[in-house]
Automatic annotation (TrEMBL):
Domain of life: Bacteria
InterPro entries, per database record: AAA_22, P-loop_NTPase
SUPFAM superfamilies referenced in this protein's UniProt entry, alphabetically: P-loop containing nucleoside triphosphate hydrolases
Listed name of the protein: ORC1/DEAH AAA+ ATPase domain-containing protein
Transmembrane annotation, as ranges: none
Residue ranges of domain ORC1/DEAH AAA+ ATPase in the record: 41-151
Lineage of origin: Bacteria, Pseudomonadati, Campylobacterota, Epsilonproteobacteria, Campylobacterales
GO MF entry, a single one: ATP hydrolysis activity
Amino acid sequence: MKNFGIAKTLFRDSVTTSFYFDSMSAELARKKVIDTLDANHHSLLFLIGDAGVGKTHMLHVLHRSSSFFPHSILMPHAYFEWQELFLRLYTQKGVLFDETLTQALHVKQLTEIYQESLCTIFIDEAHLLGKKQCELLATLCHNKVFRCVLSVPCEAKQKMLEHPSFTSCSKASIVCGLLAKHELHRYLQSYLMVHSQGEIALMFSAHDAKKIARYAKGNFRTIRHFLYTLFHLLEFSQNQYLLEYTTLSNRLLMMTALEIGLICDR
């Protein structure tokens, strides 16, 4: 018997760092970030994309990659004080954080500590950073020892690129795009297979996957929400012995799209 309950949990709305899907858009963004920083032309990068395209996941992938680890830190949100950021930087080098020093002295000390190894700071939801935080990041970038990669939604792109604190910084923006329709089938197959759900993976045809991708418009978070809801419906139907709804069909896919509001029943 297919375990739709397990399949459902695989698509909860959470960041899964143990699995990276090499979609065309993700690979372009990943390689461009690495190549740009390796070239040392820019110390400040903005990872731009709509909500749900995978910016947060990309930051986690980059942070854990051999290109940056162990000389990188990840701030999962913008609500941090400078002491928290500096504590992470000191801890990375095994140095104690001296609470009695001023921010300026800490910047000088950290610059000396990281002089031999460039450090990359990844920050998610960076459009929520305050003025003082932006000023601090700009100071770090100017020291040419620290590089910052900031995740920013499309609607905040201009605001961040034109932020007064970043005016004199050497900066660039990189777009994190949508999942192509033809790629979803491979994603489904590989993700379910790697979690030992091969029987469920084989339920999906390329046509089914393209239909789901069209409903979700290539947005990764929406795709995962769709699949979570689809497996919830399949699990319910299986438990209630509603056999006609335990196999994939256009009708079931449409029901899922209606359930999460992707189409209107009027």
